[in-house]
Amino acid sequence: MSDVHFDIASLHAAYRDGVGVGDVVATIHTRIETADDPGIFIHLAARADLLAAAEALGPFDAIAKPLWGVPFAVKDNIDVAGMPTTAACAEYTYWP
């Protein structure tokens, strides 16, 4: 996975070639852990939760689901179910 770029076209090509979305999730988590920079993410979803969500996506279909398997991050001032909204301020933290 280290040679796969994370733009949509490259990810689609990798998925067509048999790369699993779980492999992408694992690679992302490994890269984040390797960076070891607490300033990158205030909250990171558990790898197991992401893998379970990836399994629930069903089969790859770039036409019907063009964003299938495309990783993304959400700023911590946007509400996401099951994740804390903090706006980078611990005193502001709440769970939607």
Topology diagram in text:
Elements: H1 8-16, H2 21-35, H3 47-55
Keywords:
single chain, mainly alpha, 96 residues, globular
Query: Biggest β-sheet, characterized?
Result: none
Q: Which structural class do you get from the secondary structure elements?
A: mainly alpha
Oligomeric state of this protein: single chain
Determine the mean pLDDT. 91
Overall domain count:
1
Residue share in β-strands: under 5%
Radius of gyration using CA atoms only: 15 Å
The tally of helices reads: 3
Poorly predicted residue ranges: none
Describe the protein's architecture and organization.
- The chain has 96 residues and is an all-alpha fold.
- It has one domain.
- Helix content is 34%, strand content 0%.
- It has three helices and no strands.
- Helix 2 packs antiparallel against helix 3 (47-55).
- The mean pLDDT is 91.
